[in-house]
Predict the 3D structure of the following.
Amino acid sequence: MSADVDPTDEGLAVTPPKTWATGAPAVAHALKYALGQTSPRRTALTLLNINQAKGFDCPGCAWPEPGPKQRHKNEYCENGAKHIADEATTRRVTRDFFRQHPVSELAAKSDYWLNQQGRLTEPMVKRPGADHYEPIGWDEAFDLLATELRGLASPDEALFYTSGRLNNEAAFLLQLFVRAFGTNNLPDCSNMCHESSGTALNETLGIGKGSVSLQDIYDADLIFVVGQNPGTNHPRMLSALEETKRNGGRVIAVNPLPEAGLLRFKHPQKARGVIGRGTQIADRFLQIRPGGDLALFQGLNRLLLEAEDAAPGTVLDHDFIASDTTGFEDFAEQARKVSWDDILDVTGLTREEIERVHEMVLASKKVIVCWAMGLTQHKHGVPTIREVVNFLLLRGNIGRPGAGVCPVRGHSNVQGDRTMGIWEKMPQSFLDALEREFGFTPPKKHGVDSVDAIRAMRDGRATFFLGVAGNFVRATPDSDVTERAMRNCRLTAHISTKLNRSHTVCGDTALILPTLGRSDRDIQNGVEQFITVEDSMSEVHASRGRLAPASEHLLSEVAIIGRLARRTLGDSPDIPWEDFERDYGLIRDRISRVVPGFEDFNARVARPGGFRLPNPVNEGVYHTPSGKAVFTRNDFEAPEVPEGHLLLQTLRSHDQWNTIPYAMDDRYRGIHNARRVVLVNPADLAALGLADRDEVDLVSVWRDGIERRAPAFRVIPYPTTPGSAAAYYPETNVLVPLDSVADLSNTPTSKSVVVCLEPAGA
Ligand SMILES: Nc1nc2c(c(=O)[nH]1)N[C@H]1C(S)=C(S)[C@@H](COP(=O)(O)OP(=O)(O)OC[C@H]3O[C@@H](n4cnc5c(=O)[nH]c(N)nc54)[C@H](O)[C@@H]3O)O[C@H]1N2
Ligand SMILES: Nc1nc2c(c(=O)[nH]1)N[C@H]1C(S)=C(S)[C@@H](COP(=O)(O)OP(=O)(O)OC[C@H]3O[C@@H](n4cnc5c(=O)[nH]c(N)nc54)[C@H](O)[C@@H]3O)O[C@H]1N2
Ligand SMILES: [Mo]
């Protein structure tokens, strides 16, 4: 498809959903995309270096790589190959491009079109009143930003958003700069992603990260994959689950959709995967109602307690409960009382289905629960994950080999960014360590998260926005409200590799600061630098870019942040910004003295494969107030869906990276050449009087009475749980009310939006 032609939905075609994922076609699809973006030579160079010990970390998902010895020569997936091709593209956005296209025109273009224009090549500014971006020198750009920052009435009027692509070194510098400047306003993509996981795990286990390693996945007897679509979003996880199965373990998938990868998997890099029938991944598939997972785990917990009553001493791990946990009695009292009517109603499952899973649990000594956005982006995301922890604690499935919690992270370094201090509410111990190392007192007052950042801009309390990677206006909910909020700013700026909609929704002044990507060679002071990342399983390792940068004008993220800091705060002997830019090893020295677990960072990360951060839970240490793991009592209410309405989840197609579609296809679900589609159960379509391919507007219903409408979607009959529907993000973000958030974590409820389908244009 030509980059100049905006794809339309004219060619919508639907084929039956696939029952298996990956296999030979996947590699062919990736190569096709790569060759459409760049030369065969660059394609080969990128593919040979992804996830290799001396190469670069895949900028796709955060699933870990096997150890250097077990690693495959092609340790990447179809989608990883597409992400890297998208970054390695030879297409360029130049000053001529901006001369030709005014901002008002770019703001009417699709996400797809903007991304297809290629890599950004030089800093650009849009001045107040202008409708065009024009070139600006780096020095002048930093002056503009620094002057604006210094002119604010309070540092809290500035917002610094981070997306999880950012590497550890740049993330550490960013939070250092922002705190030295005087604010904790560090919203990040995690606020919209695994915040519910962090909140629940911090409260119950004392650390907001998963506890398992790849080896634990291989060794488990039973793995739950809940609210996750690994075939598309974490394809290499399927190879790991295949290994689990080969070792005799079993897998239970819990999802409203029968996702291809959960059913059957063909390994793309093994002959048997290409020709054989592949491995059946899920031994059992529970087609749950969206938002029903809390009730499911409460039902399982009730069954475990009753089984223990029937055969005392055989079901629960009493020693573990006594030595490592608190709150058991209180939890158990409530769990025994949950009503089966409620559980069956909210889950949409039968009692037999839940009992069969219970039997599999009883037969398993080592259980892992994996989850992603299907749990976190709900009003009851935090209590749901707390209930998962209850479930694991009951049989001592925490902190021992082959067992534990596994929130599967999204962006390649989203976990690392948090470790480095990108969080609006880092604990005091971290702030104290910063103070000891750098000799300034970081502000104590918590900053704003992503949702509160939008409120602050909307209400004029924040007027300066800097986005470091990401695409804020498309990632966030309530698109119309968010865009008005951004336009309210005096200055908006973005450190980016590629053009996206956030560049077209401008404050009075707007800046584009183009930067190196993960695959680009980074040379400072004549010396090749590497950066580091942390994956979903707390493995920290180095990443070295291998390609010639997209333009000679690009600066690395470290350089941009360091120079901005120096210009804003001035030189100080305590924070040698210039030295940090010249030698990233000096940043790592500082990290090793501030961040626990990073002692001797430079030496340890130099080893092939890097090192794993300790998780205290695996040593029986819980950083909770009681020093123990905590059982919790969790109430549930079913999401209320009025008659004639559906519960809509907004999710990813197979051909997108978050806010950026790569193509209009969702191959595994059988959707081709269109994204404005809504997948609805045939029984619901019949009840609503709608037919296959009818055109409808999606209208969301929320207590504020404001109408939120996403026009012109085609309905597709699809085997989703009755009463629920699914459509792609970010096209549907306009429907998610800003105030519709998860309790305690403030994460937008992107998987639970009450909608009605109205005839298009009604
Ligand atoms: N190719 C590709 N890979 C990616 C990304 C990408 O955009 N493209 N994004 C990355 C990022 S940042 C993230 S966070 C991850 C996201 O990874 P996922 O969480 O897998 O992403 P989603 O597409 O949001 O899919 C959510 C899944 O949860 C299910 N679900 C929805 N509601 C419920 C529910 O109430 N209960 C249960 N049990 N299931 C439910 C949906 O049917 C779907 O299968 O992927 C990462 N990897
Ligand atoms: N409705 C709905 N909304 C959601 C979700 C959902 O499931 N449903 N999911 C949420 C989740 S889980 C997440 S993580 C967020 C994602 O939100 P973000 O992380 O903000 O969005 P991305 O689409 O990943 O950002 C893409 C942009 O990042 C920039 N970029 C890419 N690589 C680099 C790099 O190496 N350096 C720099 N500086 N820039 C780079 C490019 O300019 C690109 O256009 O969206 C959230 N929003
Ligand atoms: Mo994410």
Remarks:
- The chain has a mean pLDDT of 93.
